[in-house]
Design goal:
Blueprint: H1 2-18, E1 24-25, E2 27-28, H2 33-42, E3 53-58, E4 61-66, E5 69-75, E6 81-88, E7 112-113, E8 116-119, E9 125-137, E10 140-152, E11 158-174, H3 179-185, E12 190-203, E13 206-216, E14 228-236
Antiparallel strand pairs: 1-8, 2-3, 3-4, 4-5, 5-6, 7-9, 8-9, 9-10, 10-11, 11-12, 12-13, 13-14
Length: 250
C-alpha cells in the first residue's frame, strides 16, 4: 500500500512539475450596484464614463476594461474590492499592424483590449491589443482583426512581445444579382470567407498559433474560386512584423 501511495505521489508531483500554464479567459459579469459604488470611489476620475466599462471575473479576481485601461481587483470575502494591478495602454502605438484582406488600411478602428490573458512564461501574462478594420459592400461586408501582444509587467509597465499577428477575419460578398441567380444559388447567395485563430503556450515566449481558414463559394459566383477548408500551424517565438505569413491562396 505504501508503494502504491508513493507511486501516486510521484506521478502527481511529476505532472505538476510539467504542467504548462494556460490562457485565462475573462468572463463577462453584470456589475452590481455595490460594485459600481466601490469602483466609483476607487476610480473617481473615470466614473463619469462608466458606459465604457466592461466588467469581468477570472479565478478569484475581477477585471475592469475601461477603453485603453486594464485593472485587476481582488475579490475579498467581505466583497470589498481592492486594486491589485493596473495598466494604461492609451499611449501605445500599433506601428506595424496591417490588414491582409481589407483595402481600407488607413482607416482602422481604435485599439481594443481583448478579454483574455495569454501566458508568456510560468508567472507572467500578455494581453492582445487589437486593431479592427471594417468594410461595407453592396449586400455584404467584412471585418478583420490584427493584434499586438504586450507582456504585463509590475508597476503598470508593459512591453511588446509579438506584433502584427492576424487574429480573425470574416468577409461576405454578394453573388446573386438576378432572379435566375437566386434560383440557382439556393440559400447561398454570397461568397463567404472566415479566419479563426487558436493560441497555445509551448514554452517561455513561444506559442503555437493555429489558423483555420474557410471559404464557401456560391454556385453563381463569378470569382472563379473554390471552397477552401485548411489549417496551418506556426511557431511564434520572434517579435517581428512578418513573423507569420499566411498562404497566398487564402
Amino acid at each position: 500500500m505504501k508503494t502504491l501511495s508513493l507511486i501516486f505521489f510521484c506521478c502527481m508531483t511529476t505532472n505538476m512539475a510539467f504542467a504548462k500554464p494556460v490562457e485565462i479567459r475573462l468572463k463577462k459579469q453584470k456589475m452590481s450596484t455595490e460594485q459600481m459604488s466601490q469602483l466609483c470611489k476607487l476610480l473617481a476620475n473615470d466614473c463619469l464614463e462608466t458606459t465604457n466599462w466592461q466588467w469581468f471575473k477570472a479565478q478569484q479576481n475581477y477585471y475592469l476594461i475601461d477603453q485603453f485601461k486594464l485593472y485587476q481587483f481582488s475579490g475579498n470575502i467581505d466583497n470589498t474590492l481592492k486594486i491589485q494591478k493596473q495598466w494604461d495602454f492609451s499611449a501605445y502605438q500599433a506601428k506595424t499592424q496591417q490588414p491582409r484582406w481589407s483595402e481600407m488600411s488607413d482607416e482602422p478602428s481604435p485599439l481594443t483590449i481583448f478579454p483574455k490573458l495569454f501566458p508568456v512564461n510560468e508567472h507572467d501574462y500578455a494581453v492582445a491589443l487589437v486593431q479592427r478594420w471594417n468594410e461595407s459592400y453592396s449586400g455584404g461586408g467584412m471585418h478583420e482583426e490584427v493584434a499586438d501582444f504586450v507582456q504585463l509587467l509590475p508597476n503598470g509597465k508593459y512591453q511588446q512581445i509579438f506584433q502584427n499577428i492576424p487574429l480573425s477575419m470574416y468577409r461576405m460578398i454578394r453573388a446573386c444579382f438576378s432572379e435566375e441567380d437566386y434560383k440557382k444559388a439556393g440559400e447561398q447567395c454570397h461568397d463567404e470567407y472566415a479566419l479563426a485563430t487558436e493560441i497555445a503556450y509551448v514554452k517561455p515566449r513561444t506559442w503555437n498559433v493555429k489558423y483555420h481558414y474557410q471559404s464557401w463559394i456560391s454556385k453563381v459566383s463569378d470569382s472563379n474560386e473554390k471552397n477552401i477548408d485548411e489549417r496551418k500551424n506556426y511557431v511564434l517565438n520572434q517579435n517581428s512584423a512578418d513573423a507569420i505569413q499566411l498562404p497566398k491562396r487564402w
